[in-house]
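Risk register update: the risk of archive-format incompatibility is retired. Evidence:
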Amino acid sequence: MQPRPRREIPLIHLLPNAMTLGAICAGVSAIRMAYSNDFEKSVALLILAALLDGLDGRIARILKSESLMGAELDSLADVVNFGVAPAVVLYFWAMDGDQTLGWIAALVYVVCCTLRLARFNVGAKEGTLDKRFFTGVPAPAGAMLALAPLFLAQAVPGLVPDPTPIAIWIALVGGLMVSRLPTPSLKMRVPARHARPLLLAVACGAAALAAYPWATLFGADILYLLSIPGALLWQRRSSH
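Archived output:
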């Protein structure tokens, strides 16, 4: 019996999965930073995880190195980075003394994030996803929405977090994640005449993020929430 020939793959094809694993490391490290009360680094690591999450799949498609393992790994990373990590960071930040309501809210958020990702995976395999919109708030956006109270407190010195409203807030964000509301997707098409204003807005946002990170992150959350009714209206008009 002859041995199987060894299968070799280009080293660069490992890059997308390496980025996904790097995102997991960033998410878990965000929890560690929160445990040390270094919430600025926690948020920075979660943003890094979100950036890596947005890039790994695109790079895999460019390199033509998509795989079933990569898809499963990406979904597991999302549960850690955008489900568990934000919930634990918020719990350490504002709800550590509220061991009942705060922890229940954190669990509700994590469960909703997991259910949302499972629904997305099923839709992707069955080919039933509407590529113009997401159904419910996607996991990375949900994580940024959940962190809105932290962004606001950092932007407004002296603002003391109240555990009860924050617990209610992250439970509501979890509800938005598993909802059937259409939410904006980067695959949405816009008129060509809007391309330059959109690029200018992105450049201004990047400059604001560098100069006023906390206020910009909170403002981005507000704009995202305001975009949901617009996506709902757009979907209804396009379906007629």
